[in-house]
Structure formats: structure tokens, C-alpha cells
Amino acid sequence: MNSSKICQEWDYSVILARSIIKQIAIRNMTNPTPQILKTKQHFEILDGLRGVAAISVVCFHFMEIVFSDYSQNFIGHGFLAVDFFFCLSGFVIGYAYDDRIAKMGVWEFFKSRLIRLHPLVIMGSVLCLLTFLFDPFSTYAGSYGAGKITLVFLSSLLMIPMPIMPDRYFNLFCFNAPAWSLFWEYVANIFYAFLLIRIGKRFLFVLTVFAAVALCYVCYRSNSLMGGWSGGTFWDGCARIAFSFLAGLLVYRYNWIIKNKLGFIGLTILLMLAFLSPVSKWNWLSEPFIVICYFPLIVALGAGATLSEGFKKICVFSGKISYPLYMTHYAFIWMFGNYFSSHKPGTTQLFFIVPISMLLLIGIAYLVMVLYDIPVRKYLSNKRKPA
């Protein structure tokens, strides 16, 4: 066999090998292996618990109008759901972004957070403006000029605290009161992107300990962790987000995930025990314990719990509805408060009014989610892709 024939056969073998490799590559692209398809685990039970916490906040806001004395309120610690949100947020942000924020960049991270959060900030502000102007049980709107109303509305849209309305108890965001926690959520996201993503676990642990001390001081001083929502308690909100967000991030980075079979119902009961715990003179002990020890434990248990198939749809729906419900409900809470003050409904009436109102608010939140939030976020995400 001469050398030219050998070269021809070698060239043919190389071409054949390349063809086989190409076919394998195409097959792998059209039929990806399980490893390629593998994505991050989704914690459906944590989603479900987020919904339970959101509903608890709504119930608490109704009942704090009925019972100004929190010790008479059966869900007097419902406001601690916000601290649970903060802890859950720290865990989820760490889980979702710790391993990819370096690739996507800080500004892309901020864009993704704005797309996720801000459409409902806007909708909540619009709903609160409308109920403020057209509340049939109140005449407050007539005592404010168009300039002041516009200024307060813009502060709500842009998340700039402006506690200037005495009729709204000097809330940081006078139209949409719950937005105070979103303000601190944004602050936490900024610190995460510029600082927390860069520090090791030990330094994170030290920061969390200092934040726990600050939280205990705030609670001891006021005998409650209720603050953060008003101008006078502004820095209490900083203490609340600082500890809980760091604690959630710590749970993720140390992988403190506890495998268990409590399931969605078992963990819902455990979470509700915190919100239903009695309000007393011992709040300065019980509330820090709940926030510092109990909520991180529930997050660790929720991340490691086994979810039965029958509760999967409930958890998914509960998680999806939680944020729309939280950001839209207070427009109607203001109306309920004015109705309660002017009409003085009795216990029997309230027994029907409050549950029916809560169901209606869940329905409104669902419509806002389907007709507004999801389409807007989808549009913004699609506009962002070419860039």
C-alpha cells in the first residue's frame, strides 16, 4: 500500500469521526441529558409558608383595628410575619444569587430585583391613592391639597420615606403602609450585592451576632418589635431587617437544612404558633426568641421538609399570591378602619365582615397578579433580554 492511499484512508477516517461527533453533539442538544436539564431545587413548602405569613399579616391588620389593645388580639404577634419574610428573603437571595451574581453583574442583579418587586409597589400605591380619594367612609382627602397628595403619591412610587400625614399615623409610606418593609428589602439587596456577597461565613456570623444584639436592644427599649413602619420608629426597621436577612443568609451558607417529615401542615402549625403567641409584659424576651431562634429554625425545617403531592398546588398558589396580597391589601384596610370608626359594627357583624373581606382581598390579589403583575414582569424581562 503506497503512502498516498494511506493518506486518503486517514483523511476519510478523520471525516467519518468528525461526522459521528457532530451527530452526537446534535443529539445531545435536542435531547439533553438529565445532568444538563438539572436545575436548582425549588422549595415549595417555603413558598407555602410565605403565603401563610401573608394571610396572617392581613388578618392582623384587620384585628388591630378591632382591638387596639394587642393583648386582646388573638393574632397579636401577626406583625412578626414581616421578620419571617426577611429571614426567608435572606435564605432565598443567597440560594438564588450567591453562585451567579459574579457572572450576571451587580446591575443585572438590581434589574432582576426591580422587575420582581417594583410593579406591585406601583400597583399598591395606585390602589391606595384611589381608596384615599374615594373612600366613602372618610373625608380626609378633602383636608389635603393636590400638591401634598401628589408628593406623597410620588414618594410611594419611588420608595422615598415621607412620614408627613398625621391621619395615617405618620407611616413612612402614608398611602401604602406595608411598603416600609419593601424599603428595607431594597436596602438589604444593595448591601448584599456590594458587601455580603464578598464576605466569608465567619464574618457573616459575627455580623449576625451584632445584629441580634441590636434587635434585642430595640425590643427591650420598646417592649416590642412592632416598630419600623413610622417616622418615629424608622431605625427599628433597620434592626429587624439586619438580623433576619443575615440569619436567612447564614442558614443557606452553612447549609443548616434539617431533613424532616413535618410537611406543609406541620410547619404551618409551627409558624402559626409564633403569630398566635400571647402579647404580654414579657415581649422583650419572647419576641427576640421567636425572631432570633424560632424563625431561622422554621426556614431550615421548611427547606428540608418533604412535601406530599396533594399539597404541592396549594403551596405553589400560596407562594405566588403572597406578595400581591401583601402589597395590595392595605388600601382596603384603611377603608375598613374608617368604616369601623364611623359605623361601630358589633361582634356578630365583624364575624362575617372580616373573613369575607379577607377572601375578597385574596381574590383581588389574584386578579392583580394575573392581569397586571405577571404580564408586566414578562414584558420587562423580554425587553431586558436583547441588552
Described by the principal axes of the CA atoms, the overall outline is globular
Distance N terminus to C terminus?
Answer: 59 Å
How many helices? The count is 15
Rg over CA atoms, rounded to whole Å, is 26 Å
| Largest pleated sheet | none
- Helix-strand makeup class: mainly alpha
What's the count of strands?
Answer: 0
User: What's the quaternary structure here?
Assistant: single chain
Structure notes:
This protein is mainly alpha-helical. It has one domain. It is 72% helix and 0% strand. It is globular.
Structure described in brief:
This protein has 15 helices and no strands. It has helices spanning 3-30, 34-37, 44-66, 81-97, 101-104, 106-134, 146-157, 179-194, 201-222, 234-253, 263-275, 283-304, 312-328, 330-343, 347-384. The longest helix has 38 residues, at 347-384.
